[in-house]
Write a structure and sequence with these properties.
about 650 residues, alpha+beta, five-stranded mixed β-sheet, 15 strands, elongated
């Protein structure tokens, strides 16, 4: 039997400032309530919009739906009917290419299809739960039940099943909010002497459900297919098929609150834990080596510089200045395109705050395995609620740099990440619609997301911008800036931006690349990632290494009298995002079996946006670390 109990392995103040913040806090309370109402309302609204791309789907049924509410919602009596929902089908190696279950000609329910209402996150991940004709009542065994009367598969239906078996299609179902998987059929290679190999396609016609219960609760469910009960669909224009199923209940001592542990058990296998700990040790060694480099080399050089500059000031005032002190009159000269620079810093600060909030939710156990769409819902809500941070940080830095067109700055901040995301989404959603995939968002869901942006994200960005514009905080610069910039001397090629970015991104990437495989296998595969504590440690190490390497490169840049460090520090800090995107190509072509235009588009499209977000976030970390360092070293010397 091909059992699929688990996913199988794939091959900050003046009075005006306080007033603006008061207005922002009141408006933020209203927008938070509005966001919550929109998310809650979408649960019922999405079910009516699922059929926007498939006219055959009727409206949702609500009577038999059971949501993830709590333990009391999962109590059943003997012989009580428990709905078995079919979710989706698709090629096993293309996790984004999913289709509605009844796109294949399975037996429909006698009373017609009923769709379970979905919340925002479930629709985003492509879940489309629909009723099935399986009678899996609580603690009622079935030996060999017919799913429907004998069905005559037409040539068109046979072609669909044949393609599904050839592409290794799997199906996913949910029973009492527990996921289960199975394959549609199997492929056999027939070898005959003196003849080429022949491929035969077999359709599974019988499924068996093994269900465990503890008193009045469902604890575990597994589905298996009988390889002996198949139908050869390799040839023929019309083939009679009889679908059947069986159910076997057994008692277990596993308590209800531990029934989801089996889905995360894969991450805690000894060999995988050893790899995770090896990843952390590798990252820690990288941090220690880098810290030692800074402590023994950089700080020693700085100490010598301080001693030399102090002696020069005491002995020979007319002696020519050299090194990083030589550019003290230009090091705090604001960068070109400072409106865009401030927008990037504000957006990076927002993304950093959002990631920290997501980690906090993960560490307290919100994102347990197969809590469908919870992560995407949290990301959307947190991004909307933290948008005020982007507006405030961007506008405050923009004003400190002497900017006056704050409206344009706020608009740039609000669109720096959202606009590329919107363009990528439009393209990918169009591809999904052309494939008639469940990855295509219904029109109603798109409207809900737009309303959240229009009524929550954008207003909070504007309110944050107003508060930042009204702040009276001045930019702190230990040295006075000259009226005219000094000319930067001719530098060797490895001192330019791109070679420096390659050096800056390599070390942080080397600290996380082992953990990247498990993250990719979870996001773009069927494995489950639940060790969020280890992932959080790796994230902290990533931040430390990024800050240290950016500080080191900023010092070397100033030491050769190149004072244009602002954009360079951000580009070097964010260069790890480029390395991660380069790893995407390696993973796609060497470590996965993904194929097809839709899956390729989704993988590289959405990974581009993730890496772009990492570029902005880590670039902000690099800039902040370099700013603290530059202020510290120039505050320690006497500058006119």
């Amino acid at each position: 039997h091909r059992s699929q109990s688990l996913p199988p392995k794939p091959k900050r103040h003046s009075q005006s400032t306080v007033g603006a913040r008061g207005v922002m806090s009141k408006a933020m309370g209203c927008t938070m309530c509005m966001a919550a109402l929109l998310i809650l309302a979408h649960s019922s609204f999405a079910s009516r919009t699922i059929g926007a791309f498939n006219l055959e789907l009727p409206s949702s049924g609500t009577g038999s739906s059971r949501m993830l509410l709590g333990a009391s919602d999962h109590v059943y009596k003997v012989h009580e009917k428990v709905a078995l929902y079919a979710n989706k089908v698709g090629p096993f190696h293309n996790p984004s290419e999913t289709y509605e279950y009844y796109r294949l000609p399975f037996c429909p329910p006698p009373g017609g299809l009923e769709h379970k209402s979905e919340d925002l996150g479930e629709v985003l991940i492509g879940d489309r739960l629909v009723s099935t004709p399986y009678d899996v009542s609580f603690r009622v065994d079935h030996e060999n039940e017919k799913l429907c009367p004998q069905k005559e598969l037409s040539a068109k239906e046979l072609k669909k099943f044949r393609k599904a078996v050839k592409d290794d299609y799997y199906f996913q179902m949910y029973y009492d909010d527990l996921p289960l998987w199975g394959f549609i059929g199997k492929v056999e290679k027939i070898l005959r002497p003196g003849q080429p190999a022949e491929m035969r396609y077999y359709l599974f016609t019988h499924v068996h459900f093994d269900i465990s219960y503890n008193n009045d609760r469902v604890i575990e469910i597994n589905v298996s297919t009988d390889p002996l009960r198949t139908v050869d669909i390799t040839e023929g224009e019309s083939i009679p098929v009889e679908f059947s199923y069986s159910v076997k209940w057994k008692e277990t001592s596993i308590p209800f609150d531990r029934r989801m542990e089996k889905y995360s058990r894969y991450s805690f296998l000894p060999q995988h834990l050893e790899i995770h700990w090896f990843s952390i040790i590798n990252s820690c060694v990288t941090v220690l080596l880098l810290t030692g480099f800074l402590a023994t080399i950089l700080m020693r050089v700085l100490k010598n510089d301080f001693v030399k500059y102090t002696r020069e000031e005491d002995s020979a005032e007319e002696q020519e200045e050299m090194g990083w002190k030589y550019v003290h009159g230009d090091v705090f000269r604001f960068p070109p395109l400072y409106s865009l620079f401030c927008a990037a810093i504000g957006t990076g600060t927002q993304l950093f705050t959002m990631v920290l909030c997501v980690f906090m939710l993960a560490l307290v156990g919100v994102f347990y395995p197969y809590n469908r769409g919870a992560l995407l819902t949290a990301i959307i809500v947190l991004y909307a609620l933290t948008s005020g941070i982007a507006g405030y940080v961007s506008a405050a830095n923009y004003k400190q740099m002497g900017g006056e067109k704050w409206v344009r700055n706020v608009l740039l901040t609000s669109s720096l990440f959202c606009l590329p995301m919107f363009l990528v989404f439009c393209f990918l959603n169009t591809v999904a619609i052309s494939y008639r995939s469940t990855a295509a968002l219904p029109f109603g869901t798109i409207c809900v997301i737009f309303v959240i942006w229009a009524l929550v994200t954008f207003p909070l960005t504007v309110l944050g911008g107003i508060a930042g514009k009204n702040t009276k905080t001045e930019f702190y610069a230990p040295c006075r800036t000259n009226k005219y910039p000094r000319e930067i001397p001719q530098l060797p090629w490895y001192r330019h931006t791109i070679p420096q970015m390659c050096m800056a991104g390599f070390l942080p990437f080397s600290a996380i690349y082992i953990e990247l495989y498990y993250i990719f296998a979870s996001v773009w595969g069927h494995k489950v990632y639940t060790i969020y504590s280890i992932l959080f440690i790796v994230f902290i190490i990533l931040l430390i290494v990024t800050a240290f390497i950016t500080i080191a490169l900023t010092y070397f840049q100033l030491a050769v009298e190149d004072h244009e460090w602002w954009w360079r520090s951000m580009m070097c800090g964010g260069s790890t995002g480029l390395f991660i995107y380069g790893y995407c190509f390696y993973y796609y072509f060497a470590r996965s079996d993904m194929s097809g235009f839709m899956q390729t588009s989704f993988f590289f499209g959405y990974m581009f946006m993730i890496c772009y977000g990492f570029f902005i976030m880590l670039g902000t970390v690099g800039y902040r670390a370099s700013l603290v360092f530059v202020r510290h070293i120039y505050k320690a010397i006497k500058c006119e």
